[in-house]
Amino acid sequence: ATLYVDASSTRPIPKNFFGIFFEEINHAGTGGLWAELVSDRGFEAGGHHEPSMISPWGMIGDETVISVTTEMSSCFKTNPIALRMDIHCSPTTCPPGGVGVYNPGYWGMNVEEGKTYKIVLYIRSSGPLDAVVSFVTSDGTDMLAFSHITIMTIFLYLGGRVTNCRAEAEKVKNWTRLEVRLQATGSNPNCRLQFTTRQTGTIWLDQVSAMPTDTYKGHGFRIDLMEMLLNLKPRFLRFPGGCYVEGNWLSNGFRWKETVGPWEERPGHLGDVWNYWSDDGLGYLEYLQLAEDLGAEPVWVINSGEGHVDQVDTALIGPFVQEMLDSIEFARGSPNSTWGSLRAKLGHPKPFNLKYIAIGNENCGFRTYRGNYLKFYKALKKSYPDIKAISNCDGSKQPLDHPADLYDYHNYTSAEGMLDNTRLFEKASRSNPKAPKAFVSEYAVTDPKEKVGNGTFGGALAEAAFLLSLERNRHALDVVEMVSYAPLFVNENDRKWSPDAIVFNSHQAYGISSYWVQTFFKESSGALLLKSHLKTQTRTRSKTPHVHASAISWLDHQEKKNCITIKVVNYQNTTIELNMSFKGVDLKSIHLTKQTILTTDDCQDENTFENPTKVVPQTSSIKAKVEGKEIKVELKPRSFTAFDL
Ligand code: AHR
């Protein structure tokens, strides 16, 4: 095969070409990137009835010495459930370890020796309080950190940070906020947080939080997972879904106003599509902060008044439209504006760089969509003409029947389908240069018939070919502006969707092959595409090319030099000799810097916790012959290679 590269003919790749899509699915945020260790910290997950269930919390001691119930007795109006414990034993009759409750976290809390954890809890007691807060291994045997809480006087209402107490309800008085720091004397990835006492009486607990003190920039994000995201150099962050935005029932969709402000006052909600409760510690402000910390532009997917089951008629959509406008003012309004001042009060006076709004997710098929969309679109453009509006309708096959800047395209298919899709956007109309561009915001090889498992190398190789087609194809670039893989994260204990780029548990994480494929594109956004043409004999029965290549030139800021990177997918199971033939560049000025190869023996290979690096890129010097204007290299069978020149 020969790749002809003309370095004198270039065109820019969009500056936000490559990014990530974060959805609250598979416990990606709750029990994942968001470092909060306590699950259901306000006891709201069981619902607002009395008594509610306390799960996932568990009891220490049994009914003879303790009874536990939930009561509508919290001092927080927005999350009224609290836990009530009646302790029937005394210092002489209670078990030596005391009685009380524990929280198992999200399949175990990762407690690490020497590290400090900030515990906050709201408490009310019928008498003097003598209790212990501790991290204990999940079997209850080993205590890795503890602190005594002893208060000798009966609580009076201490005020402080306890706000919203309903003065009229006698029983909710006398709450106070306690904060302790626990420093771990040992490590265990499967711990629980315990609250125990040997004091007779009644104790109410609410809003219990345990946060590691070392989170990314102190912003609450788990550091190891953040580092994996930073390694992708994403230029945009689409959030927070996905179906999560919509909800099966609209009442369970993502409503940003309920996710901002003091964490204790956030009501939390059931994400009923992926079926788990979120305390919404990772709320709208945190998502914007996440984008900023990643150096990525936020792409905010708003609820367009459409859940999977129920939708709001266009005549009644006004409040949803206002919610969108308010969310934009919150993100980028001046600190003197109504919502901008809230952002400033919450610690971020500087506006966020919000330039993209996606109106709904996969809602184009709904009867209400076009009507609703137009209301959102018009209001958006009237107040914020610079914000790009993203439609849910497919503009690749025929022009959209409504105005938009981008249209959302989701591409889940088999490996062969993904290879076929390398031609997807060739057919898209180019007659109107102002027509909306495609935002391929979700793509992945998912077809279970092909045994994609939890993310095989074979699937990822087809995705690499697809990404190259978006990056390379001069025509495709006219119509494709942005691309991101989906889903991004999975907590191995709650796999709702496969594959997912990053797999984690309480203390470990690894990337599947699809994650590593994405790392090959981290310099693509804003780079220059060099005109190239691949000549190869190889064609399959389906006429889908099995060799794909692209050439880009980009500025290496660290080394302060221009680089050329040639990326090639060899989807065949034979070695290929590739001649790289250059025009418009002096070969003498080219250094064979390094080659990075992602390959393995078997297309079914995948990474696991047991072998997280089975399929990872290997970097070495370039083994090449330079002859005249050609560089000759070998492409391994079934491989993805990047040559840095
Ligand atoms: O990525 C998983 C799901 O796939 C998303 O929630 C949805 O947008 C799509 O159907």
From TrEMBL:
Its EC number is 3.2.1.55. The lineage of its organism: Eukaryota, Viridiplantae, Streptophyta, Embryophyta, Tracheophyta. The keyword Transferase does not apply. InterPro entries: Alpha-L-AF_C (IPR010720), ASD1_cat (IPR055235), GH (IPR017853), Glyco_hydro_b (IPR013780), Glycosyl_Hydrolase_51 (IPR051563). It comes from the Eukaryota. Belongs to the glycosyl hydrolase 51 family. Residues 441-639 form the Alpha-L-arabinofuranosidase C-terminal domain. It catalyses: Hydrolysis of terminal non-reducing alpha-L-arabinofuranoside residues in alpha-L-arabinosides. It is an enzyme of class 3 (hydrolase). This is non-reducing end alpha-L-arabinofuranosidase. One of its GO terms (molecular function) is alpha-L-arabinofuranosidase activity. The keyword Cytoplasm does not apply. Keywords: Glycoprotein, Hydrolase, Signal. GO terms for biological process: L-arabinose metabolic process.
